[in-house]
Amino acid sequence: MSLSSLAISASNISYRIGSKIILDDINLDLRCGEVTTLLGPNGAGKSTLLKLLCDEISSFNDIRYFEKAKDQWDASELAKRLGVLPQHSTLSFAFDVNEVVELGGLPLALSNQALREITSSMMLKTGISHLAERSYPSLSGGEKQRVHLARVLTQVSQHQQKIVMLDEPTSALDLSHQHNTLRLAKDLANEGAAVIVVLHDLNLAAQYSDRVIVLQDGKLQADGAPWEAITAEMIEAVYGHKTLVQAHPTLNFPVIFAA
Fold it and tell me: Which residues does UniProt assign to the signal peptide (predicted)?
């Protein structure tokens, strides 16, 4: 079934805790085929926005997936098209890595053989095949992060048109795995997914994003292609830091230097 290329439509998104406004009247349309990165300083509302968009935080906000209201979706069907990698993933059972990745297959109703083939592929993509028999609790933070990424990719593996949300997916990763993870995000978008990523690293966002959305104090401050959104003026206004933004010497994306 082919769905609309408009993956998420969110209107007038607002959220507060007590008297503190976390998000203030955000309107977003997110499309398949794009990596959209949410940027902003600590406390800007990035993770809260992601949680609202995936309905982890229940709200009365108007959110539609593929032009269908969220409460009109069957939960099991939406789970096959919406995968979320949270900022912190906890697991209290002593599963091995294979078993954790296979949890992503729960919504899919696949044969054991088909599921093994998919999980093997996703573990290869995320560079954790050599960890397959390891106990999950024995892993480093970065290894656990990649295990959960493989789980999420398994969950949404049956559809090209899908939504993948990644909340700080590179926070515990070394340089090589940071770039591998974001190349995977780019590949997913090229295959038809809508990918929404929360990042702190402006240079990674500039290199891998099709669209950058900048939040500050719950308000949208910039929205556009990397060259439009990531400017020295924006960085000074939002982050309070002077920078120099120049073109990469061989590739067409901005590179940010501290001034």
Answer: none
The single residue listed with the structure tokens 């559809």 is 159
Give the torsion sign (CA, 165, 142, 40, 208): negative
The secondary structure of 222-242 as a DSSP string is EEESHHHH--HHHHHHHH---
**Integer Cα distance of 24 and 220 in angstroms:** 8
Mean pLDDT (10-residue bins), the chain, 259 residues: 83 92 95 98 96 87 90 93 92 91 95 97 98 96 96 96 96 96 98 97 98 98 98 98 96 93
Residue 131 in contact with residue 147, Cβ under 8 Å?
yes
Q: CB neighbours (10 Å) of residue 136?
A: 20
pLDDT of 92 reads: 76
Which pLDDT score is estimated for 2? 61
What is the model's pLDDT at position 164? 98
Q: DSSP alpha helices (H): ranges in 126-196?
A: 141-155, 175-190
- Tell me the one-letter amino acid at 158: Q
Task: Compute how many other C-beta atoms are within 10 angstroms of the C-beta atom of residue 154.
Answer: 26
Question: How far is the C-alpha of 235 from the C-alpha of 256, rounded, in Å?
Answer: 10
3-state secondary structure 10-62: EEEEEEEECCEEEEEEEEEEEECCEEEEEECCCCCCHHHHHHHHCCCCCCCCE
| The one-letter amino acid at 159 | H
Question: So what's the pLDDT on residue 199?
Answer: 98
Is residue 84 within 8 Å of 118, Cβ to Cβ?
A: no
Q: What are the chain's domains?
A: 6-225 (3.40.50.300)
* 3-state class (DSSP) for residue 149: helix
Contact residues for 139 (Cβ-Cβ < 8 A; gap 6+): 97, 131, 147
